Amino acid sequence: MNDPLSAPVLHVVLRTTPSENRKNRPSWYSKDRCIASLFAAVDRAREAGLDVRVTAAIDVSSGRPLPGSTAHLLHRADAFLAVRGGTAAKSWRPVVRAVRSQIRPADADLVYFVEDDHLHHPDALQLLVDGTADYRLLYALESEHGAISQIRPGWAHVPGGTSSFAVTGRAFRSDFRRHLLMSCGGGAWDELSWRALGSHATPPGVEYILAPFHRSSKWTRPWGLRPLRHAVFRALSLLLARGRRRSIELRTPIRATHCESIMLAGEEDWGALARSLDLTSGTRPRPGEADAAGKILLRTRARDAHTVLAALLAEPR
After folding, report:
1. What percent of the chain has pLDDT over 90?
2. What CA–CA distance (Å, rounded) separates 274 from 34?
3. From the CA atom positions of the chain, what is the Rg in Å?
4. What is the tens place of the pLDDT at every residue in 64-74?
5. How far apart are the first and last CA of the chain?
6. Distance set, CA 247 to CA 132, 148, 214 (Å)
7. Domains in the chain with CATH codes
8. What's the pTM?
């Protein structure tokens, strides 16, 4: 697992699901375009000599097949992981466990967790590897994730980000339990995770802990069990932060964006980039069952393996 003579590997873990949510998307958005942009960045990084391995973590809890075009793109992955989640937090935990127990990154490796609604510039992954921080981001917004301050050419400090981030193998193994625990906190659980790593987008303290009970919070019942749970996890994240302070850096200029209309990042013309992918995706032969089955991670339960194959190989309608 930690061979000092082997070159570091970039493990890309794409979290995807057959369904779409109801977020306000830009007109040019499609899941296929986002996934195609990720594989374009993978190709660019490989052309630069990087060892990149892609695992598609597919949430099969709905039992629905993937759209034919999406399944076709996902066949480019090196491995498939079956996930039974149903929500972002519930699907996150089995992914984190599988990376630790099955992918098992070496200390110097980099693991890039990314959701299927992020659009990437072709050079994004190549530039991501160029960093030195424990945690490296391709996307963050100052309005959402805290002050962004340039520290050297190409990299800026940022207090945190979303659940799409890169982390070194060494830091991941050390922080593994924090990522699992904070995802149980409800609400903005990714923000809890960054807090537990010692990062503070807003000042820590009693006001931060009690914010879920405020009338302006998103909770429909400010004094219900859900905000109470979230407040408890806020307090716990601050306790955990006392023993950990990770370096977190953002690649600049920003090379990826979350495709939600009010969350777009940077000055890039993301619409033009998205539309350009329709011309470069090309066509590939439809892979067979044996090819897909050979990519399913070891120790996958037979039922889950069957469900992944069904999601990937369903005939397009």
Report:
1. 66
2. 7
3. 19
4. 899 999 999 99
5. 43
6. 9, 13, 31
7. 9-174+246-302 (3.90.550), 189-241 (no CATH)
8. 0.92
